[in-house]
UniProtKB/TrEMBL annotation, chains A, B:
Record keyword Cell wall biogenesis/degradation present: no
Stretch forming the signal peptide: none
Similarity-based family: Belongs to the amidase family.
Key words, A-Z: Hydrolase
Active-site residues, as the UniProt record annotates them: 156 (charge relay system), 232 (charge relay system), 256 (acyl-ester intermediate)
Zinc in keyword set: no
InterPro entries: Amidase_CS, Amidase_dom, AS_sf
UniProt GO molecular function: amidase activity
EC annotation from Swiss-Prot or TrEMBL: 3.5.1.4
Catalyzed reactions: a monocarboxylic acid amide + H2O = a monocarboxylate + NH4(+)
Protein name, entry field: amidase
Domain Amidase: 100-559
Main EC class the enzyme belongs to: hydrolase
Length: 571, 571
């Protein structure tokens, strides 16, 4: 694909003749779904199809500013802005949606080349949509169709986008997942004016906090390609960190929005189950209700998390999806009085796996700073951590991964290393084989939730601050301990991760003194593994971030508290 | 038990020495749980224990006004008032809680004698609690502790009340269910000032829309003892219809609040899952999340449904039970402008089982009247009715009733006839034996929900009016078709049943002409059974009522719409 104005003239026709567009003929769709051959061959075909829609690009750039350095000054300025500013610029006609979308298509191409973060490409359709939004605005005295008018948004692979494939990391699904309609979250964003221009990588099985599959291969971290961008929304994390996207749609059942956000130095929100629409997703274990995944945003700033949720909930998705809570978004709650003092629960260690030194120092520093700013800090006892982990894995693997095996058998593909680890080390000892075993698991989950709520109320918390993982962005295939994020999936509390800096890769003597590591003998084999994963130089340039956790159905309050926390930390 | 002022003096001590009171000693509790012997013997002991706490009473009274006729004029006036008026009278010190509670204890005794609706009795504790509330008020310048200050409330047997047994209809549970704490709904009511004075009958297994068990026997309908009061909150229905209670706590997983309310000529609300607290209940299939039961009120008027919900939600139960939606009650929405015109969906027939003539005439008349009052009526197509029934029974019987059998084996008791019917005719063909079969069932449920929501939105409804059952209060052991209520458990929409009159037991010629019955050849064996259950004289004096259904999480709007519907119907 060449980015020039030729697209402009041909856009409307181009869209209807593209095999993955809305107007695709039956023949086109058949051609698109004709991925045949060995699993290796299918993956290669899929990658080839993607390459054909991208263009050639240099491979030796400095990743931290690669996109900006390769674009024009004007384009670099565009991709440097957050979504709410871009929306304001487009609404005020300082920028066109076409300009903005084109800049992000270019940056996404660069990001793909650097990190292998994209899957399905619909630049042509996105640019045509952008042009059509510009035309609408021109013909309606500058009026926009919604709060995201003209802003490009990227979408995780397993979330349906009309007319596009979404194999979700399984080779055997390639070509068989062309969506008839948008997932509801995508529909709401499009109705709010968003431009969809690409889909992003997720790992095989989706149940991983890294991003690797046999269709597209491994996604790497733009800050340091020897590290993972996290997962399962790792394509989103890498793409947004490269500014190849400004706002992404991710999903999270155990940390899959928050781990990529932390690993890539951006923001990620895991909302309460049912707060945002979740219909129109592909992936294993549909109907597994013990722990439900959620849709949520990844973004470059706090304000854009608010914009994403508010734009979707303005569309009243509860009128289209029965699981969505009838609960309008209250933006005013995201801006509390700057003088408000919070009661903040603190977790330094979850009782199962100590965190690496840069993370414990970040927690220590945040704790000191918040205290100095007048907030009250209270230790949180993660008393049911082990049970929480077991409930999560038993829920997600209650069929001992049989469904994953079934999807892999479609193509004969092997499990990627981390799925293999899950299927070996994390499956319950036996398949749940009676309804009552499933019911008992739900009761165990509710027991964890009840105990957590009792502690929250006893401490009378506003919010809870904790690490999001025991390591910075993990080395490839090494992530093992999910509990810092997954425990909030079990309690169903909204949680947001936010960046606070980058790690140098060097421990100064005073830092070494502050955070002796390992702090104790390993308490279990996973902690032992995490201990071995500590070597400062491995994590050079890795982003450092933390996690803030709120109460069920109170996403706005949580974002409001994060505003206060960030103000204190940056003061 | 003798109702005299002697109780007054001894109340505080009496409470602490009663074996089922809060202050029971370990020995007392052991004695209370020492039900041994055959299942027949255990049931007889339980009935004997109850009789010992009641007094002798005449058995030949006219049931429709029995309680009032046997009480003093003052007491009869008290039991004739709804809860919100009693609360106002107590708050204004026109009545004491003791007077009110005593009147209801007496009426409850009469109701028990007439219908066999009570299980556990705690009149002494209730009267002591009433006295203590009166004392509080006297010592605090008339101040009350909450909106239910001094109002007696009855509680369905399987809902925990501290210090009391709750065998929930299983012989083998007798004496083993003495609760350490109140169920959360009960706690909230008590904190709002309610006086707990008795528990009420539910059927063996709880999964029945009649009320019969081997512990206490069959509960009958106060309007006509050859009929059932419905179930599973049938004890509540019978007790409240007799004015032996003014407000009751029931539960509903398939119609268990609404069927008793309809059968007894009172009001019953099934709220959205999670709207009211549900923790602290005993009963089978804990953790079965596919279709969850809910707690809700049975009452003598619409205003009391509002009072019940508002009193509980004022206590912010979401701070104590993680499943409760963080959603304060908005009483103002229960009083819409009297001029508001509604869009009302109408179901005359659910496609599976035609309703008996008095019910179809009630629907016809309501439809005509509402139309004349300016409301818009729109036919609802119950398109997924069969699937909805199958989802419900597969969910509740996914273990093919194995858990019921287990509880029955504890004592060797047999299944009562309707449980036997369920276990024979309604169990799925095989036990769900893999997690994925359970997931598939959840997906089927969600498909029903999504289709129903789409139709609601397409019709742009405010509310939906329909029968609550195909028959009036059923003849004992004859109820078979639950779908008119259970379909709203599958969609998880709030639904309220309300009385509109009583049936004469005679079909006038013009009535017979209006409602030809049966209207068509039977469409299935259950409809055939229901056809055979029609003989006008069987239903003499049976209450007639209908059901109004709203949208998820919008109980207040539903009650507001019912106010408009009732205004039109009574005009």
């Amino acid at each position: 694909m060449v980015f020039d104005d030729a697209l402009d003239a041909q856009a409307p026709t181009a869209v209807t003749t593209n095999p993955i567009s809305d107007g695709a003929s039956a023949d086109d769709l058949e051609a698109a779904s004709s991925f045949k051959g060995t699993w290796q061959h299918i993956g290669a075909s899929k990658q080839q199809a993607r390459e054909a829609l991208l263009g050639p690009i240099e491979d030796d750039a400095d990743l931290s500013s690669l996109a900006a350095s390769l674009l024009t000054d004007e384009e670099a300025a565009i991709i440097g802005k957050p979504a709410h500013i871009l929306a304001a610029d487009i609404a005020a006609r300082r920028l066109t949606s076409y300009q903005v979308t084109l800049a992000f298509c270019k940056a996404a191409t660069i990001a793909q080349d650097a990190t292998n973060c994209l899957t399905e490409i619909c630049f042509r359709e996105g640019l045509a949509q952008a042009r059509s939004l510009d035309t609408y605005q021109a013909e309606h005295d500058g009026k926009t169709i919604g709060p995201l008018h003209g802003v490009p948004v990227s979408v995780k692979d397993h979330i349906d986008v009309k007319g596009m494939d979404g194999p979700s990391g399984f080779v055997g699904w390639c070509g068989n997942c062309v969506a008839d309609t948008n997932a509801l979250a995508v529909s709401c964003l499009v109705e709010a004016g968003a431009v969809i221009y690409c889909k992003t990588a997720n790992p095989q099985s989706l149940l991983s906090i890294e991003t690797n599959n046999n269709v597209y291969g491994r996604t790497t971290n733009p800050h340091n390609r020897t590290l993972s961008p996290g997962g399962s929304s790792g394509g989103e994390g890498a793409l947004i960190a490269m500014r190849g996207s400004v706002l992404g749609v991710g999903t999270d059942i155990a940390g899959s929005i928050r781990i990529p956000a932390l690993s890539s130095g951006i923001y990620g929100l895991r909302p309460t189950i049912g707060r945002l629409p979740h219909s129109g997703l592909r992936g294993p274990h549909s109907g597994m209700d013990t722990i439900l995944g959620v849709v949520g945003p990844l973004a470059t700033c706090l304000a854009d998390l608010n914009l994403f949720c508010s734009a979707i909930l303005e569309r009243q998705p509860w009128r289209r999806e029965p699981q969505v809570l009838t609960l309008p978004w209250k933006t005013e709650l995201t801006s509390p009085s700057p003088d408000r003092k919070l009661r903040i629960g603190i977790i330094l260690d979850d009782g199962l796996c100590a965190v690496h030194p840069p993370i414990s120092r970040a927690m220590n520093k945040a704790t000191r700073t918040l205290k100095a700013a007048g907030h009250t800090l209270l230790p949180w006892d993660p008393v049911l951590a082990k049970e929480s982990v077991e409930v999560l894995f038993t829920a997600c693997l209650q069929d001992r991964g049989e469904e994953y095996h079934e999807h892999m058998r479609l193509s004969g593909e092997p499990a990627v290393p981390l799925l293999q680890w899950l299927l070996t080390e994390r499956v319950p000892s036996k398949t749940l084989s009676t309804p009552r075993e499933v019911w008992d698991l739900n009761v165990r989950r509710d027991t964890v939730k009840t105990a957590a709520l009792a502690q929250w109320e006893q401490l009378n918390l506003d919010v809870l601050l904790c690490p999001g993982a025991p390591t910075l962005a993990p080395r490839h295939d090494q992530s093992r301990h999910w509990n810092y994020t997954s425990m909030w999936n079990v309690t169903d509390w909204p949680a947001v991760t936010f960046p606070i800096g980058k790690y140098s890769g060097v421990e100064a003597p005073e830092e070494e003194a502050e955070t002796r590591y390992p702090p104790h003998p390993p308490r279990n084999p996973i902690e032992e593994h995490v201990f071995k994963e500590w070597s400062p130089e491995w994590y050079r340039n890795a982003p450092v971030g933390l996690q803030l956790v709120g109460q069920r159905m109170q996403e706005e309050e949580l974002l409001g508290c994060l505003k206060l926390v960030e103000a204190a930390l940056s003061a």
